[in-house]
Amino acid sequence: MLRRVGPSLRHFLLERKNSAGYSSHSGEAKMSRPVQARRLEGIDKNIWVEFVKLAATYSTVNLGQGFPDFPPPDFLKEAFVRALSGENHMLHQYTRAFGHPPLVKILAQFFGKLLGQDLDPMTNVMVTVGAYQALFCCFQAFVDDGNEVIIIEPFFDCYEPMVKMAGGMPVFVPLRPKAPKDGKLMSSADWQLDPAELASKFSERTKAIVLNSPNNPLGKVFSRGELEVIADLCVKHDVLCISDEVYEWLVYDGKEHIRIASLQGMWDRTVIIGSAGKTFSATGWKVGWTVGPNRLLQHLCTVHQNSVYHCATVAQEAVAQGFQRELKLYGKPESYFVQLPKELQQKRDWLIQSLDAVGMKPIIPEGTYFLVADISEFKSDVPDVPDSDEPYDSRFAKWMVKNKGLAAIPLSAFYCGAHKNNYNHFIRFCFAKEEATLKAANDILQKWKREKTNP
């Protein structure tokens, strides 16, 4: 039997801590050096964190966040159930890191047809955890310290911080609105790039341009002519194009979504980003993908294998079956890609009428889930605050959710800091909602109108 001689090890270690200036009561050594990496400086704030909390606390109707409150199509849910409860137990395990083989094969077949390219599923397609991770992989793979990345405003808010985290410098160019004639409602098509202004943003430091068509938040669908201007500048300056096309199937009024990679000289320099969440109304599944030439995608694979590495197998299997169905029905009335935009266009038109009736001037979107409305007529409800650092639309949106129970997102959130106050009298609504949700929103707006008429 061993006898304990002298002080215990615990006592000895505590004595050493105390002699080094540590507190034996806390049992912890406090660090004095900075712990935050410099690449995180200035990007800690996030509009979604703030407004999701506000919506959860105050709203009775949430038209802020961009997700449907209706279910995915039955065929997709049934595919998920089959994958989950079927006899193939390997669907519960890891699959290929860069994409479940059935999914990359059908994506290559489907998008090869659309792009007029013979795509290799193993080298021209990579599956990601939603389009968000696809974007992250692009910026990490392509952007070096000091590289400039052109971002078209208004832009989905993650583009700017992702460029900065990669060490790049965002360069912003705005879509500028042109007032329509004859008192008509403005369309997202009325927001256009100035070709000369866009050209002035390209330089020898430019590494890439981010294109989002259809555009979130405006709903703008870039025309062939507009895309050709961008493509010509990319070719002239040898610049990459990161093409965020997650709303590719959600276009209205007979508009056509044109893929910039299909234009002359663009396939070899473009990464296309897609999303099953937006394609099949299943945003919580977080299945996205990139399509492009191997010379670009091989670098995305390097980022992917050293970060996320793998995406949920069962969800990929279900999405693969969804695309297999849609390939057979492509262009036919039964296709979900035909039915969904028809349904959403009706919802869009209904919300346009509701907003217009109360004095908010909607900008008619050509695509996406979203509709932007001008709130200039409501300044009597929420007076301006001179010299405020917070954009007016942000204060208005907060007031609206707290006092009216209706959640929306300020358009200024989709601009860089220097430009936020240039477009601060608009808010963004999501109309990809059940009829009951849109009716509840209309009831709030009508009540608000009556209160304004009879104060």
UniProtKB/TrEMBL annotation:
GO annotation, cellular component aspect: cytosol; mitochondrion
Transmembrane segments: none
GO BP term, pick one: kynurenine metabolic process
Pfam families: Aminotran_1_2
Keyword set, alphabetical order: Aminotransferase, Cytoplasm, Lyase, Pyridoxal phosphate, Transferase
Stored SUPFAM superfamilies: PLP-dependent transferases (SSF53383)
Annotated compartments: Cytoplasm, Cytosol
Binding partners and assembly: Homodimer.
Name the record gives this protein: Kynurenine--oxoglutarate transaminase 1
Originating organism: Aptenodytes forsteri (Emperor penguin)
